[in-house]
Please model this.
Amino acid sequence: MDVIKEREKSKLLIGLNYLDKRIKLGDPDKRYLLNLEKGFIGEELFDSVVKQYLKGEALVLNDLLIESKGTTFQIDSLVVTSDTVYLYEIKNYKGDFQMNSGQLYYISGQEITNPLIQLNRTRELLRQLLKEWGSRLKIEANVVFINDSFTLYNAKIEDPFIFPTQLKEHFKELSSRSKVIKKDHHYLASKLVSVHKDDLPYQKQLPFYKLDDLIKGISCCYCGSVDLIVTQRSCYCKFCYKQMSIEDLVTESVKELKFLFPDQKVTTTLVDEWCGNSVNYRKIRKILQNDFMVSGTTSGTYYE
Ligand SMILES: [Zn+2]
Model:
């Protein structure tokens, strides 16, 4: 099994995580962040099962965002074997659900977006794309319910669902059936990677923020708290009691600053302010000189 494309946290999730530490997010944004986090945790769990149980020859592509003929579609995970392309839509739902006339509901009766609609759309768009590229591989599409606290009542045996109790067996069986992967399969995988687009512009999807409104300070890399004790040599988190190096935290803060304010020139003064004036100014300058590219003249030095 070869992973051709690894999964990464989306820029939107990274951005919302950063903002969550430094402003009070509104309820819809907070909910959105929690959902994205939950989804990402589910996908990582899926990846770990794939790594453990998919032993045969196969190519794995994670998290593709494909634009074809003006339509964009997203694929959580794709496994290319000798004769089939397996498409997975991963859902990290927890609790009791029921199917009713092809619709998905919470057990309480509240309807939720049917993952089958999304799955069918993605399969159809993928089918068109593969046909266009002359591929003869079959497509098998499934919704994977990854959370082991998920229960679905009234599902039909023919529904394209893989439940937590079936996932390991699914990959074991897939491994035993897969034959030799050839040049064509690699060609297809590289074509898919080549049409993958990086994230949509994340800045537009984040809530509005400006530098003045954000809480300043270096933040704990374990729990995100900005309540740290900084001594000459290291930092301690008042919340989770972990100890961290000042250099690591300043470097991380600069990355965060650049992410949230990509157009802003990063100067020592700005970083000092961003870190809540908690770290010695000279130390900040030294860290910037060591870890970032120096640009500009002596009087207007900034770091890239
Ligand atoms: Zn902490």
